[in-house]
Amino acid sequence: MSEKDLWRLSATETAARTTAGDITAEAAAGAAIDRMEAVNPRLNAVVESLADEARARAQALDKARAGGGPCGPLHGVPVTIKVNVDQAGHATTNGVVALKDMIAPADAPIVENLHRAGAVVIGRTNTPEFSFRADTDNPLYGRTHNPWGDHISPGGSSGGGAAAVMAGIGALAHGNDIGGSLRFPAAANGAVTVKPGLGRVPAWNPSQKAERGMLAQSMSVQGLMAREARDLHLSMPTMIETDPRDPFHVPLPWRGAPSEGPVTVGFTKQTYEFDLHPEVSRALDAARDALVDAGYNVVEVEPPMLREAALDGYRALMGEGLVLMEADIRAHGSATIQAIFDEYYRQFPPFVGDELLRVMAKRSYYARQWSLFLDEYPLVITPFLPQPFFSPDRDTEGEEGVREVLGSALWSYSMNFLGLPAANVPARLAELTQGPQPINVQIVARRWREDLAVDAAIAIEDRIGRLCLPLWERMG
């Protein structure tokens, strides 16, 4: 592989080669930056290039290694950071024009942890306004485009990161997820991710002026997207390092106890009132077959109270948002985001007052039912969306658009309300009339067992292959 093609390396391959001295961190960062400068003008995935400081950091890492200093687990790995998380000296805009000059005074825990591990941040990635949309567009930076083509939304809210990592701009992309914002863009672009469970990854923005609402605290998590599932085993232990600024972080190791015998996996194609598309059905079959071949015990199941938990959770989140976000959205949001929120409120009538308190209490009931269920089935393979990923701006198309984008995503936001880990991995590349399109499936795991979900994602990827390879051929 020539030096200019080093951007093709996975995070695992990059870290191994920079640590061994086969390549320099400067060469790895330079190749990723060159790739960014070549493909990002069309994608608009990275909205702030950090090329100069990335090169300087990579040079410093090389100098430290040459002097006998230790190498972190992500030594020289190029990464991107989403613009809704603090990175010292850079604006935490959250895709909002009014926040374009809000410069972060210090790094958020995840940025600190990545730096400590030796990662090199090459750019900051796009998000929709207020990071509360499953598509990525805003008046400040404009639209992010999916590298597979404009027939597919890049997803959101971490759409910039997913488009970047799949296009070869960095081996890892940071994102976050309050209702699906890691898994939507992973599914849209054919990336792999694991939404961590509640308390797994420390979170806090030094620039914030008030604490987030209790449901936002309970449902939102920080994570990474990659183009190779094994990179999550390399990188997620870095993400879960303790930070005292998050008082509710749970300091558990990444790897749990090994299983005795084959892991039992629940399998469902249940999409409730939404039609299951044949391509999604084929993707689920492919994921099931891959796990069976890998030695898993796969059993068809009927998961408990999924639809009820999903709708109660999202209506509760909308109730909290009505109190804590509504004023900012009306004051600083575009007409587009205001219209989308109005439609959200119509389709997910917010719980308020006593209702909100009662449904927040009922969250424990739902979580207990799932805890008992996952005691028998440590992993569950589920659809993510019932249909192939939607087109750009579908959520601006009134009731039917929002119903397809968010209303059908019961398997997504339910996992946030329950606080459970959920991986998302491509299991098929569908050839549809409008063009090729990744189809991802979801792997729900027991609490604290993100590692089991990643193991299963690796087994599926080993059978299906990495979708970055046909994508790069298509991109040229």
TrEMBL record:
SUPFAM superfamilies: Amidase signature (AS) enzymes. Keywords: Hydrolase. InterPro entries: Amidase_dom, AS_sf. Residues 31-451 form the Amidase domain. One of its GO terms (molecular function) is hydrolase activity. Gene3D superfamilies: Amidase signature (AS) domain (3.90.1300.10). NCBIfam families: PRK07487.1. This is Amidase. It comes from Antarcticimicrobium luteum.
